[in-house]
Amino acid sequence: MIRKVLIANRGEIALRILRACRELGIQTVAVYSEPDEQSLHVHLADEAICIGPGPSAESYLRTDRIISAAEIANVDAIHPGYGFLSENADFAEQCETCNIHFIGPKAATIRQMGDKALARETVSKANVPIIPGSDGPIENESEAMKTAKKIGFPVIIKAVAGGGGRGMRIAHNAMAFAKEYETASMEAEKAFGNGSMYIEKYLENPRHIEFQILADNYGKIIHLGERDCSVQRRHQKVIEEAPSPYLDAKLRKRMGDVAIKAAVAANYVNAGTIEFLLDQNDDFYFIEMNTRIQVEHGVTEEATGIDLIKEQIEIANGKRLLYDQKKIVLERHAVECRICAEDPANDFAPSPGKIGLYYPPGGHGVRVDSHVYGGYVISPYYDSMISKVIAHGRTRKIALDRMYRALSEYLIRGVKTNVGFAKAIVVDPAFRQGEASTGYIEEFLKRTPKNLFSKDKHLIK
Ligand code: ADP
Predict the structure, then answer these.
(1) 112, 288 in Cβ contact below 8 A?
(2) What lines the ligand 1 site, CB under 6 Å?
(3) Model confidence at 392: pLDDT above 50
(4) For a Cys-Cys bond, which of 141, 198, 274, 407 suits 117, CB 3.0-4.6 Å?
(5) Mean pLDDT, rounded, of the chain
(6) Residues catalogued as catalytic
(7) Which one has a higher pLDDT value, 78 or 453?
(8) Where are the beta strands (DSSP E) in 202-350?
(9) Can you list the domains of the chain with their CATH numbers?
(10) Nearest CA residue ID for atom 18, ligand 1
(11) Share above pLDDT 70 across residues of the chain, in percent, rounded to a whole number
């Protein structure tokens, strides 16, 4: 029985997990780095333990300190959130060894699906379509070149251990390939401690469609429909929505069935996400599985009415999934904008610092997941996300109009933000018509004057 949970994370996701625990009557233990002492999750948790200085490598990534904190506080479970240790199989294993529930899948599953080349191999054995590419990791540059020529340019070179849009390079021809391959491998070695690479055919302007999976310990696996995360900058998601404005019921069923097949192949338990790229011919291909809760999980929650964090905890607690696939419907449309401390007029340079006046939006159909407040200092040690604004409604139009209204209310002084940039997208006709593919932002940036993003002036449609 889970009575007490240690939250091995910070920021909005730490708060999100804390809230779910509270509603379930579960005690919470926050861990924090020195600069995070004034964070909301630290104030609100039943207990809080400092685990080291600011740099993540000295605090949030220190498995020894986190396990010690868990033992001192005598918790039954650890929720890793996203990022940090959430996809660290060794950490999940250490939890298992110490008799602490790791709220997520088994360590072996994290290991198998965290290696992107092995994940491709695992799902393709179950007849899940994968993008044409190398069979497993590439041994050396000459083998890489041979494979790239066989697949045909353009190709994308990816880090086996990659994530968060990092460790990827596109090569349009053989000459560019040699250079990109070397740089990509060096970058991956530095960022992930693993320079191992694989290659895929580069698809031109696909959509990014992902399926939310829930699986209990008794073999029941369902999906909660899709999220369309095509609005990306440098392969990182900026706006996500559920359902996708493109999918019809038939394609949703086809993709959902394949997503389940992939989760079954991974022997999956708990919440996870199967990511696909969908091309112009409605062919779709698995790109990876995220074996954790995702940043954008809130849009699925608002569209379905299901609390994913509570489900994660209940599954770890040994409860059976109560939902049947047939009963799952995306009843509402939900859209999320990731609001960051960054300057869109200056190539999105991070803008850390102290927030002055702060007034988040609210009202009917608006949810703001955030850990910040007036006077909060955005630390340069961590990512620059301030909040996730989620607007929902019966239709996509209602959700988008509501999002525009919410963003217009949002007051954040003291740091630069992408609120104006998000507003400009929300009223852009191409986005409104549901046409965005993964190339959308690049094209949008080319045709939109920069002062529109910083001055926060937009005409409503
Ligand atoms: P990460 O784990 O770093 O998020 P993913 O493999 O999930 O990396 O890919 C992130 C994004 O990169 C995708 O949503 C897509 O925009 C782009 N991408 C990845 N693979 C391909 C590909 N083969 N062709 C075109 N775009 C790709």
Answers:
(1) no
(2) 131, 156, 162-166, 168, 200, 202-203, 206, 208, 232, 235, 275, 277, 287-288, 438
(3) yes
(4) 198
(5) 95
(6) 292
(7) 78
(8) 207-215, 221-233, 236-242, 270-278, 284-290, 333-340, 342-343, 349-350
(9) 4-103 (3.40.50.20), 132-201 (3.30.1490.20), 207-453 (3.30.470.20)
(10) 235
(11) 98
